[in-house]
Each structure stands twice: as structure tokens, then as C-alpha cells.
Amino acid sequence: MSSALLSIRDLVVEFSTERGRVRAIDGVSFDLAPGETLGLVGESGCGKTVTALAVLGLIPSPPGRILSGSIRLEGRELTRLGEREYRHVRGKLISMIFQEPMTALNPVLTIATQMTDVLVRHQGMSRRRARDRAVEMLALVGIPSPEKRIDDYPHQMSGGMRQRVMIAMALSCNPKLLLADEPTTALDVTTQAQVLEEMVRLQERFGTAVILVTHDLGVVAETCRRAVVMYAGRVVEEAPVECLFEQPRHPYTEGLLASIPRIREEKLPELPTIPGSVPDLLHLPPGCRFADRCPRADELCRRREPKLELRCDIAVACHHPNRYAGCRE
Amino acid sequence: MNRETAPLLRVEGLSKHFPVRGGFFRRVTGWLKAVDDVSFQIAHGQTFGLVGESGCGKSTLGRAILRLHEPTAGRVILDGTEITALPRRALTAARRRMQIIFQDPYASLSPRRTVLQTLLEPMEVHRIGTPRTRREKVLELLHIVGMGPEVLHRYPHEFSGGQRQRIGIARALTLDPRFIVADEAVSALDVSVQSQVLNLIARLQRELGISFLFISHDLAVVQHISHQVGVMYLGRLVEIAPAEDLYRDPLHPYTRALLSAIPVPDPKRRRKRIVLQGDVPSPLAPPSGCPFRTRCPEAMPLCAERAPRLTQRHDGRAPHRVACHLY
User: Fold this and answer.
1) With contacts defined as CB-CB under 8 Å, which chain A residues touch B221?
2) Is B243 in the A-facing interface, judged by CB distances under 8 Å?
3) Residue of chain B whose alpha carbon sits nearest to that of A46
4) Partner A contacted by B217 (CB < 8 A)
5) Is B190 an 8 Å CB contact of chain A?
6) Would you tell me how many other CB atoms lie within 10 Å of the CB of residue A295?
7) Which of A140-154, A182-196, A231-245, A276-290 has the lowest mean pLDDT?
8) In chain B, at which residue ranges do the beta strands (DSSP E only) sit?
């Protein structure tokens, strides 16, 4: 797709560890259209955060490095940018929100200072205009009496308020792409509902494309249009959310969906599970990485790793996927 | 009442208030009512799910029941023994019958002890059995939690989160407890592993007849595992009901908001959501009257004047109690 805002191809990120070199992500590819919301889902260690960090040019090096592959934003290759150019991209085109806003906000500076600094630096605004804009953004994310709260320090705010400040700050430069890594995981459910609602509303209003990195499929179902499911460093399935939740094609996606505890009318005697655990990335099996836990695995799966194959807007990496159920899209 | 129908655990008017110190002489300037006048019961072999958001006091309640925090007021009676009346020395013996499982097994397992040492320790401390019977017990426990003898000489860091939580559960079982507090025991685990551990806890509870206080912020997890559910807000229980009643017919406006806030993994079912305004008030300065009234969509003038008491709903069908002036 040439119309993609972001295009990732065969991305490999390697880390040197005491026990040897390990590929945290190994051949990840997907596209993101302008204004689209994409969920990047999977369990811990699947490579979803590393993928997000790679897009941001924030892979800690050493020990990490991008071994191969490409990341294009509006057609421009990001993997070859120098640190200074990348900083410019991060300020103007890409923003980010992390799980714990307290670690992303500077505890000794007021919200006003932190928000206006960004605007002065990347948008070339005057201090006064930047402050007005910051107050306006805080109001937009639903902070009560923003003209007063802007002079607070981060510790004077609750977790939900801090995350809203992060969203306001991230969107204040009008980025093309917002990377949100588990933005509501540290929040309580009632606060999570508020913050997600604000995020979606603003994203629609500004037309920002969002990559939402999360382990929570419920959050994906409610906020995203498409989802990429990762397992052990690889993309196993990519589909529009309606299709993914109605008829997951990869057995891992299917198992993951089944094992989410959800409120049910009738209680099940046993929760469905995926047996076993995620493979050690240092000792990967030769074939499919999910084979050891897969009810459908056969000799072929153990011998040859399946490739990600695209059919009708759904991509799946499996030798024995669920049949395509005729999703409308 | 005979032993079968009598509850295993009775909590009566339990409170835990922490002093707040400030000023030059570190004088007590106020009290944080982390748990305030909480009463409930857990039947033999049943699980009581305790839900609420961070800071609501659910963990403090769990610890106060075990006297890991000394309660400020109230009584805890386990299997006929008044735990809150025991002198310190007798408490150690009583602790054999009540155990706790924490959220992060990595923090609660000693990194320098092998699985065998970890599981032997409680029996050694309490001088139970001979070295041989202890070792047999360890193998039996590992089998119960789905692990084999090959793990005996390994250290915690060699295991995944789910396996470590299994070891934590095995350790809690070494002294054949009657009652276990599971504090966010599956919250740190990935979903595929979380469901394995949940099934394990449900099985233990069925097969060994252990009663659980299952503390979690996750309402879906609590529904799956609990017979009774209590909802906590700012140190108080605001609703208690059998699990099926609570989820089918939530009464308290807070319980309703909590239930409607859970993201549903089904893109076609976007429900009408009750989005609460604002944040949980500081427990240092709780609102007058009902603690929830500042965020409650149904608040009335009466709610600011008087705190509602936990009362049986009047149609009296199920033992469903709620602390709200609407009922």
C-alpha cells in the first residue's frame, strides 16, 4: 500500500544478552493508514513494545540494534536517521504515551513548564501562546479548571489526571502518529474508561493515527479498527477487529480470546486455557513458534515455520488456520 | 449451629486506621481509615471475592484478617478461634491454618532458595513431620500444582511468572491451611497463563475444601472464581451478594459503574457506559455521608448527611446487601 502513513517491513531487532544474542522481534511487517487506530497485541515478551520503540528510534543501543528491515513514515526511511533528525521526527510527527506517566513526566517541573517547552521547541511558539495552547489542550482532555491545574507538579495529580496530561502533551504538537504503550494498564477500570474515551475522541478530532500497544483484547475491541497479534517476536495474525473477534484464524489468537476472563451469563466450570508457556527466545523451535502449545500442530508445523500470508484483508501465519469465514471487509 | 453450616471465617466490624503524622514533632495529625467497620462471612470451602479499585482498602483488609496488620477494632473468628484475641505467641500456631498468596511471587520467593528449600521451610519452622515425610509432602504439593520433581533443585529466576505463582501456591498449601487470602494472585500474569492458575485455584478449593478470600481489581476474574462477592469503596463494603446475583442485578451505583467500565472483547457490543466523573477522593479526607456520593450519578441531598448502612435489600430474595440510600 502506497497510501500508508507508516510502513514496517521485515523488521528485525536484536539484543545482546549474557546468554547470547536474541531477536526480540524477527521479521515484523505491517502498515498503518493515516488516521487509523491499530492495536498491537500479545503477551509479555512477544515484541510489541520493542516494535513501538523501534518506530520511535528508541531501541537502547547497546544492547539492542535494528538488524535489518525498514520503517517508513510518509515514505521516509526512519532506520537510517541520525539521532538529531530522529528527535525532530519525534517532536513533530510522532508522539508517545507510556504506561506509567510518572516516569515520563519530570517530577521537578510544573505541567506548564513541560508542556510549553515542547511547544516552544517543536512548534516555534512564544511562551505565552504556548501556555494558552497548553491550557486549551488540558481542557480538551477533561482536566477541570485547567488554567489552575497547569501550574501543578505531576505528584499533585492522580494517575488518571497524569495520563490525561500525557495525552494532552502528546497531541499538542499535532503529530501524525501517536504510539500509546499500555496507556491505561496502570489505571483503575473506571479511570481507564474515562481516559480511553478521551483518547479516542481527540484522535478522531485531530485525525491522528494511533498504534495502541496492549495486552488487553477488550481495550482493542473497543478502540481499534485493526489489530496485529504478535507471538514470540512474530506477527501471527493481522485483521480488522470485527473479523478477528468473530473468527480468529490463528489458533493462538483463538486461544487468547477464549482465555480472557469475561463476565458471563453462565459461569463456566473451567476457563479455557492455552497449555504450556511462551518459548524461550534463545531456544526457539525450528518450526512454528506456537507449535508446542497448539492443538493443531503436526509434523509440518514442527519442521517449517509458516509465513504470514495475506488474503482478503486478513493475514495469518499458520499452516492450519481456521477457515476464512467470509468477513465482509 | 453445627460445624457444617457455621461459617469458617467471620469478620465483624473490622477496622484498620493508620495514624497520619506530620509537623515538627511527628504528631498524629489525622487518621487514614483504610478499612472501616467491615463485616462479612466466608463459608467452609467457599470463595469470597473482594473487588475494588486501588486504594479502596481491599489488601489492607486481607492483611488485617491475618493480623499481618494489627486491626484497630473488630473481631476475626476463624473456625471458632477468635484470631483477634490471640496473644502474639499463639498467633504463630494459628497461622498454620491461614495463608496468603501475593501478586508477585518473584518478590515473595527467596531468590537464593531452591524450590525444595522454599517448600520445606514452613514445615521445618512449625516442626511438622520427619525429613522423609516432609520431602514426600513437597512432591505431593508439586504434583497438586502441576509440577514434577525435576523442579526441586531450581531457583525462582529459572521459572516463568505462571510457574512461580504455582510454587507460591504450593508453599501456601504446605501446612494444610483452612483459609487462604489470595491478594491479586493472578493480576501480574498474562491471560493465557492467568486462566491456568485460576483453574488451579478453583480446583484446590473444590478438592481440598479450602476457603479463599480472593482479592482482585478484575471483576471478570472474581466472577469466575467466587461464590460470594463484596465490593469495596474507600474502606467500606458497599455491596455483598452471591456472585450470580451481583453480576445479574448489581444494586449499588458504584458496582454498576464498575461493571459497565470493563472493556468487552467484542467489537459489536459497544454498550452504554456509565462513565464516572472525577477521581476517588483522598481517604484522608473522605466525603461526609456516603463515601461514593461525590462521583455518584444518583446522589441525593440525604447522601451528604448520613452514611448509608449495609442492609438487606427489602424484597429479601437473595442474601443481597447494599449500602445505598436508594434501597
Assistant:
1) 261
2) yes
3) B190
4) yes
5) yes
6) 10
7) A182-196
8) 9-22, 27-42, 47-51, 73-78, 81-82, 98-101, 179-183, 211-216, 228-233, 236-242, 311-312, 321-322
Q: Is A6-231 assigned to CATH 3.40.50.10420?
A: no
- CB–CB of B156/B111 below 8 Å? yes
As a dihedral over the C-alpha atoms of residue B75, residue B182, residue B180, residue A277, rounded to 10 degrees, the angle is: 180
Contacts of B163 in chain A (CB under 8 A): 277
B151 touches chain A (CB under 8 A): no
Subunit contact B263:A219, Cβ cutoff 8 A: yes
Q: How far is CA A307 from CA A26, A72, A300, A315, B153, in A?
A: 12, 22, 13, 10, 40
For A37-68, what is each residue's pLDDT tens digit? 999 999 888 999 999 999 999 998 889 999 99
CA–CA separation, A127 and A123 (whole Å): 11
* Omega within 30 of 0 (cis) for the link into A146: no
Q: Please judge whether B276 and A264 are an interchain contact, meaning their C-beta atoms are less than 8 angstroms apart.
A: no
Distance CA B156, CA B171 (A): 13
Write out pLDDT tens, residues B3-12. 456 799 999 9
> Which of residues 48 through 77 in chain B touch A, CB cutoff 8 A?
53-54
Question: Are B237 and B323 a contacting pair, CB within 8 Å?
Answer: yes
ipTM surpasses 0.85: no
Cα separation, B35 vs A54, whole angstroms: 45
Crossing angle for the helix pair A111-123 and A83-92, nearest 10 degrees? Answer: 110
Q: Which candidate from B161, B268, B275 shows the least CB-CB separation from A193?
A: B275
* Per-domain residue ranges of chain A: 6-231
Residue of A250, A271, A283 to mutate, testing the B interface (most B Cβ within 10 Å of its Cβ)? A271
